[in-house]
């Protein structure tokens, strides 16, 4: 869902990239869900833009024991969404390698 309430069903890789590129300090979140997985609402990847333009990335695949987080340092403005976009796209399209791309730690309710 975008800041204006627009939702995307089955977004393309370019749409995912553009959603991340449009993030700013007023509209800080992008959440992509995998519908049809049980338990419903517990299969997603979420990206938060921090004050320093670094990213907090989370993914969840079921219950709380399957909820992880990682930090992506701030990038130069021209490259800002690239590292996170690649991970989000790989996750969304179930491509290999996204888990190895970041140092995931169990989510504990606070940023890394």
Record the SSE blueprint.
Elements: H1 13-21, E1 29-33, E2 43-49, E3 55-61, E4 67-72, H2 82-92, H3 98-101, E5 105-106
Antiparallel strand pairs: 1-2, 2-3, 3-4, 4-5
Helix pairs in contact: 1-2
Pick out its properties.
globular; alpha+beta; 112 residues
Which sequence of SSEs, written as H and E, runs from N to C?
HEEEEHHE
How many helical stretches? 3
Query: What portion of the residues fall into strands of 2 or more residues?
Result: 15-25%
The main sheet comes to: 5 strands, antiparallel
Structural class: alpha+beta
- Uncertain ranges: none
Oligomeric state as shown: single chain
Estimated helix fraction: 10-25%
How many DSSP E strands? 5
Number of domains: 1
| Separation, N- and C-terminal Cα atoms | 25 Å
Quick check: average pLDDT? 90
Strand order of the largest sheet: 1-2-3-4-5
Shape: globular
Compute the CA-based radius of gyration.
Answer: 13 Å
Structure in words:
- With 112 residues, the chain is of the alpha+beta class.
- It has one domain.
- Helices cover 21% and strands 24% of the residues.
- A five-stranded antiparallel beta sheet has the order 1-2-3-4-5, covered by helices on one side.
- Helix 1 (13-21) runs antiparallel to helix 2.
- It starts with 12 loop residues before the first helix and ends in a 6-residue tail after the last strand.
């Amino acid at each position: 869902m975008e800041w204006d309430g627009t939702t995307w069903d089955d977004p393309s890789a370019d749409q995912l990239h553009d959603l991340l590129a449009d993030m700013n300090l007023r509209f800080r979140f992008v959440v992509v869900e995998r519908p049809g997985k049980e338990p419903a609402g517990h299969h997603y990847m979420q990206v938060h833009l921090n004050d320093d333009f670094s990213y907090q990335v989370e993914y969840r695949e079921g219950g709380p024991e399957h909820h992880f987080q990682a930090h992506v340092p701030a990038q130069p403005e021209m490259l800002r969404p690239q590292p996170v976009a690649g991970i989000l796209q790989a996750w969304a399209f179930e491509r290999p390698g996204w888990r190895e791309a970041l140092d995931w730690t169990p989510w504990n309710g606070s940023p890394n």
